[in-house]
Write a structure and sequence with these properties.
alpha+beta, 4 strands
Length: 334
């Protein structure tokens, strides 16, 4: 009688569908990590972006308004779950997810700072006036002051989130129901509403897109600008590379790192912070994207790997020059 053949566990192959599903889920949840997470293998189409923006906005607003209108827990305590400024937040975190204004740091702190300032100013106003809920003679002044002071502190802390201005304005103009919340206004509806909408953003935005881009601050990157083609590549700068030269001839421009030569011309990578949105003209020879990465539009590399790619490009250019020279010689001889 033949003995049954047992296959070791390490030799059992997972079904292809199961393996694909596990990899998709792994990449999906890793995208929650932001800058440290996995990137998209395929960029979404415009229709997919519009579709998921609509679905995300609808789901997020439906969640917070549904709880506010249909939950007896919040209704009995006269605590709202949403405020009008969350509508503007929905546009950012579902429809403009690549914007720095839509990232978690700006979204949460922009609202919380503005809510705190709005409530604080309203409290000071209530101390000065005996009946602040009905006194409107000076409320126009505290409305303007609340929004402007919120903007100042958001700029100071680098947490600018435009809907935060509306959060501060609601705190000082929302009526007795809002005024009576006091500093509870920071927790509900502000923090609660923002948190619920942010969870929806994480779950839906990462189905075919990537959100957030980063959680706290976006790291400085090295960008090589291609003058020969209209494409760009980005290179992640390793912390152990300290050989960065400041270009004395560039006023208020990024630091410059020389990484090699193409022929007789030097090649520079310009280091700038991603939060700096100044337009700058670089007159350098740069790297062809098709040579570096034919499958990806943006390739992150270490400086060492970049140097190797530049050297490979130099070899290709030298070979091309020889081929053109031979062609010219043959043409002149004929």
């Amino acid at each position: 009688m033949s003995q049954p053949n047992f296959v070791p566990n390490d030799q059992i192959q997972e079904p292809e569908f199961q393996h694909t599903l596990i990899m998709w889920l792994k990449n999906y949840f890793f995208r929650f990590l932001g800058q440290k997470g996995s990137n998209l293998s395929v960029n979404p189409s415009k229709f997919a972006i519009y579709f998921w923006s609509f679905v995300g906005s609808f789901s997020g607003i439906a969640l917070v308004t549904g709880l506010s209108y249909n939950s007896t827990f919040f209704d009995e305590r006269d605590v709202p779950v949403f405020i009008g400024s969350l509508g503007a937040t929905a546009i950012l975190i579902y429809g403009s997810i690549d914007s720095p204004l839509a990232q978690p740091k700006n979204t949460f702190f922009g609202h919380l700072i503005s809510a705190f300032i709005g409530v604080s100013i309203n409290r000071i106003f209530s101390i000065i006036h005996d009946d602040p809920n009905n006194d409107t003679s000076h409320r126009w002044l505290i409305c303007a002051f609340a929004v402007s002071l919120s903007m100042f502190f958001m700029q100071l802390t680098k947490t600018v989130h435009p809907p935060g201005g509306a959060t501060a304005l609601i705190a000082v103009s929302g009526g007795p129901k809002i005024y009576n919340l006091g500093f509870l206004y920071l927790i509900a509806p502000t923090l609660l509403g923002v948190s619920l909408m942010f969870v929806v953003a994480l779950l839906l935005n990462n189905l075919q897109r990537k959100y957030p881009l980063y959680w706290w601050d976006q790291k400085s990157k090295v960008k090589a600008v291609n003058m020969l083609e209209t494409k760009e590549i980005e290179v992640q700068m390793n912390e152990d590379h300290q050989h960065i030269e400041n270009d004395k001839n560039l006023n208020e421009k990024p630091s410059v790192l020389k990484i090699g030569n193409i022929g007789d011309q030097p090649v520079f990578l310009h280091i700038r912070d991603d939060e700096d949105n100044r337009s700058q003209d670089y007159h350098d020879h740069t790297i062809s994207e098709s040579t570096l990465s034919p499958k990806k539009s943006i390739q992150q590399m270490s400086v060492t790997e970049t140097r190797k790619r530049i050297h490979a490009l130099e070899v290709e250019l030298d070979a091309l020059k020889k081929l053109l020279k031979n062609f010219d010689d043959q043409s002149s001889s004929t």
